[in-house]
Design a protein that fits this description.
This protein is of the alpha/beta class and about 170 residues long. It has two domains: about 5-35, no CATH class; about 45-160, 3-Layer(aba) Sandwich (Rossmann fold). The protein has six helices and four strands, in the order ααβααβαβαβ. The chain has helices at about 5-25, 25-35, 50-55, 65-70, 90-105, 135-150, and strands spanning about 45-50, 80-85, 115, 155-160. The protein has a four-stranded parallel sheet with strand order 2-1-3-4. α6 links the parallel β3 and β4. The longest helix has 19 residues, at about 5-25. The protein is elongated, with a radius of gyration of 25 Å. It starts with 5 loop residues before the first helix and ends in a 5-residue tail after the last strand. It comes from Phytophthora fragariae. This is SGNH hydrolase-type esterase domain-containing protein.
Amino acid sequence: MPRVTLCSLVPIVVAFAAVYFASHLGVWEQAVQTICSKPAATRPTLLLLGDSLTEQGVDPNKSGWVALLQNRYQRSADVLPRGLSGYNTKWFIEFALPVIKRELSSGGISPSLITLWLGANDAALTDGPSSRQHVHGNTFQWILTPRIWRRLSSHCGRALRTPTCS
């Protein structure tokens, strides 16, 4: 059993004395109110939306782009990835977007920047094993992507990332 010495009790006694005198002099309540009433300083939040490229981007073993971004901004911003493997743009609008919109509207997160990285699964071959994920290019470019931005743009600045065309 450890021995308690007078020297080990000094910091505890000093702390209790400080709290007692602050409370007795009426300073304690004022200090607590001051601390609690100040708005907390928040760091910018980067919300990364996308498909498997975003979801698997958090893997540091693959030098994932999200992991690299989190590492780069770890002291200055919160990086929140919301990647859904296998989702095409239509499914993202139908299933993921309502949840994200609710999260944004509730004030749970207030992003400074939203990125959108969809389209890799949309480009699945029409006669391949992932044909049900295919979305025609014109539908993706002219109909689906603007619908997503209309729903998200009121919450922050925006950026768009699309798959490269060859």
